[in-house]
Design goal:
Oligomer: single chain
Number of helices: 8
Strand order of the largest sheet: 1-12-9-14-5-4-3-2
Distance between the termini: 50 Å
Mean pLDDT: 92
CATH architecture: Sandwich
Number of strands: 14
Structural class: alpha+beta
Strand content: 15-25%
Shape: globular
CATH class: Mainly Beta
Radius of gyration: 19 Å
Helix content: 10-25%
Order of helices and strands: HEHEEEHHHEEEEEEHEEEEHH
Low-confidence stretches: none
CATH topology: Jelly Rolls
Number of domains: 1
Bound molecules: 2-oxoglutaric acid
CATH superfamily: q2cbj1_9rhob like domain
């Protein structure tokens, strides 16, 4: 459920941290599914899971359409630890009727980040990207995109933690050092005055509006940081990268989950004849 404090902090800072969003068993099951996938490079596929990177490999490899990777990932679609909060902030309860589901996931992936990899700070309230707008009208949230980022490994100092600039979803000017962040050898919060690095235990999650200026510190430690990100928006959205849900996934999902993965079945499904 959404508390008054959730609403206050989300509006003030643009994010919430959900401690213990997943149990240790849920984390183990998700990690086991990932371990079962042979290593994918960008452009390679395993079933309906696609290897991908955001244009370069410095931010790590993504396994896109990760809700195809097994039941543990299907459970994340409407997980009770965040589902009602996300719906509230997207305003999905208002679009829910017999034709449309309450939300749509336009991208879901696991990200593997190795030593030396980071993602530069991007987004922020000064951008005019419709898809990720932060909006509240008459006490109702209407955010274009709300992300849930779940840690599958502990993320502490040196592990390449997510960096957020609290309140930047309402900023009118870019952070003056945002552009330097990607170029810096250490790429840390140091020098990005106002940014915080979010440290998470595995199973914790960060929920943030995509308008928030965000990125990650460079991973300095050995080993791999594993996170899963599901991006939720209104039910009339579309897939960010052109992937679509497989018929097998749609057939096995619960009706509630199917409505989020495919909010509307398009008509006609076959040629029609009307008198
Ligand atoms: O990888 C991270 O920690 C940040 C994720 C991010 O930049 C994004 O969701 O766009």
């Amino acid at each position: 459920m959404v508390s008054d404090l959730d609403i206050y902090l989300f509006d003030l800072r643009g994010y919430l941290v959900l401690d213990g969003a997943l149990t240790a068993t849920e984390v183990d099951e998700l990690n086991a599914c990932l371990d079962d996938i042979p290593k994918l490079n960008p452009g390679e596929w395993h079933g309906y899971v696609a290897g991908h990177s955001y244009g370069d490999v410095t931010s790590g490899v993504n396994y896109q359409q990760i809700y195809e990777a097994g039941e543990p990932f299907e459970k994340l679609i409407d997980h009770p630890s965040w589902y009602e909060k996300v719906k509230h902030f997207v305003g999905g309860q208002n679009s829910f009727d017999s034709h449309h589901g309450p939300l749509f996931i336009d991208e879901c992936f696991a990200n593997f980040r190795q030593p030396g990899e980071a993602i530069g700070i991007h987004s922020g309230g000064h951008h005019t990207v419709k898809r990720n707008q932060y909006r509240v009208r008459n006490g109702k949230f209407m955010c274009g995109q709300v992300n849930i980022l779940i840690a599958l490994t502990d993320i502490g100092p040196g592990d390449g933690g997510t960096m957020l600039i609290p309140g930047s979803h309402k900023q009118h000017f870019p952070h003056p050092h945002e552009g330097d962040h990607r170029m810096r050898e250490d790429a840390s919060v140091d020098g990005i005055v106002g940014a915080v690095e979010v440290h998470l235990k595995k199973g914790d999650a960060a929920l943030f509006v995509d308008t928030l200026a965000h990125g990650s510190a460079k991973r300095a430690n050995e080993g791999t940081r594993r996170v899963v990100i599901y991006r939720y928006g209104p039910s009339w959205g579309n897939f960010r990268h052109g992937y679509e849900a497989s018929p097998e996934l749609l057939a096995r999902l619960t009706p509630e989950r199917r409505r989020i993965v495919q909010p509307q079945r398009l008509l006609p499904r076959e040629p029609q004849v009307s008198r």
